[in-house]
Amino acid sequence: MENYGFLSILPPTLSIALAVYTRNIVFSLASGALSGALIIANFNPFMAFAEILEDHVFVQLAIPSNNQVMIVMFTIGGFIHMLDKSGGSRAFAGVMVKFIGSPVKAQIAAWVTGLSVFFTDSGNALIVGPLFKPVFAELKICREKLAYIIDTTAAPLCILIPFVGWGVYIMSLIENSYAAVGIDGDPIRVLLSVWPYQFYAFLALISIPMILSTGRDFGPMANAQKDYNRAVDTGKLIDVPEKKQTENHKISTVILPLSVMLVTMVIYMGYFAYMEGIKSVHVR
User: 149 with 208: CB under 8 angstroms?
Assistant: First the structure.
């Protein structure tokens, strides 16, 4: 392999700098990838473009697991768009605001909902975020809190469940590592044996009720809530809470599709886990 010297750090440095400056992750990562391809192709833009497509994009698209991830993301994205266009998210927000009535209860509800969407970490964010964004806006809770709640109930929860993608992936790493050094062991037994030592995951999951029990905000989160309150009061925030809609949206437009999706996922994964084993590609 050719030694590119200090040029090797240019792509990640460029991606990080652009991400901080533009706040556009896709553009920043794409720019970093393109700069890396340019370096490999001796700064020939035509060869660099061909390098990205032929040796990276097409290769990754040919991997079945990557296609599964993309299909899941497109499906969940379409589901969320359907909820938005049908008025389901607004109906959900209206019912939740009446039922909850306080910012603390809204955050607990978002936390509990996040715990119930356990089959995928990215799907957790795509489902819980759009559902509770109007609820938090109506109760004047900054979006940073919603983002934090989603982040602490996505990956930390998935890593504790052995029969979803994260658990299956970790078991495959254990199996391959044991085989490489000649150790016999059941991957699922090994995974379950280290389960009590997943300290970060457990602490992340219980951090929300712990923080809410204090009735206070801390550090940057306190500043974010103060900035949000000030912006709402002065009318200078572009993303102010939406005005109440005049349409009479039904809560069934969110309950029915969400229930169908969750039940279908449980039945689907349960069937293939029973028929093909917990490491089945269909379970992943």
Answer: yes
Comparing 65-69, 185-189, 229-233, the range with the smallest average pLDDT is 65-69
State if pTM tops 0.70: no
Rounded Cα gap, residues 155 and 16, in angstroms: 23
Of 201-205, 225-229, 240-244, 265-269, the one with minimum mean pLDDT is 240-244
* Spatial distance between the Cα atoms of 157 and 120, rounded to a whole number of angstroms: 9
- The owner of tokens 């030592």 is 197
DSSP for 199-233 reads HHHHHHHHHHHHHHHHT---HHHHHHHHHHHHHHH
Distance in Å from the first CA to the final CA of the chain: 35
Q: Are 209 and 108 in contact (CB under 8 A)?
A: yes
Helix runs in the chain, H state only: 10-22, 25-40, 45-52, 58-61, 64-86, 88-100, 103-116, 121-138, 143-152, 155-158, 165-181, 187-193, 199-214, 219-234, 252-276
Residue 98: partners with Cβ closer than 8 Å, 6 or more residues away: none
Structure tokens at 14: 């460029």
DSSP character at residue 56: I
